[in-house]
Give the backbone structure.
Amino acid sequence: MSAVSHAHSAIKAAERRKLPVPDAVQEAAAVRDAVFRTVQQPDPERPALPETAAEVEQVIREYAATLQTLDLTRRAADRFQPEADDLFVRAVRGAVPAWIRGLEKEFTTLVGVVEKAAAKLPDALDQIDPRRMNWADPSHMAAYTKAEGAVVQLEQLIADRADIVRVAGGDGGRDNALFAVASLPEPSTERVVAGDWRQLSPAITQWRDLRQQPVARWVYLVRQEELTLSLATPGEVRQRAVQVERWRDAGWAMRSGLTPNAGRAAVTQYLAETA
């Protein structure tokens, strides 16, 4: 898809979520549409052939002039089209951060619904599955139904978010679906030296393993305490993904030291250089 198509998809997603479309976006869209309509303007109908020879030449000359003017107008408009497209795309990109912030309230509300339901669901994630649930337990049935309904809405919200951010280049990177909704804590020398990555890494692995079980996946996310849940702009997704590398590389830096103090110093230096 082209950048213009991504921009249109972003606007449609924003409208689906009832997010306001800024005046600058609407005006840029109107400018682009005006240029596009001019480029695509069809030839006028040919006039009827006059009944007398004396009138034929004049009618043809006038029709030719009309065609020539229209052709020049379309060619001129075509030269404006790249600039109009760019103006439109840049206006939509500028609206993306506000649209993401506009989704945050609904996101937080839905996460809260899952969180409340999770407290009444089985502790074992493999039991949070309609094929394994104890449907004779009314509390489990009600909790699963609520969690499932909220997860369906969360997945649609996140899909709409993906449509919105695509015009800004998308999220990119591995685990972008996770980092679109969650972030790792900032690595510190103390946490790296303490080996806290051992608690953080399984959270990412568990998210991957549950990709075919959306309800269990979200229940896991709201239960764990290492990741912070919040929607991210495209740039924030990349920053969150970079944190994984910082944690890992800081661990390598620590292990490169010949002594504990040397390892600690290496971690501090690495984190300072990559801050």
Observations:
- The longest strand covers residues 182-183.
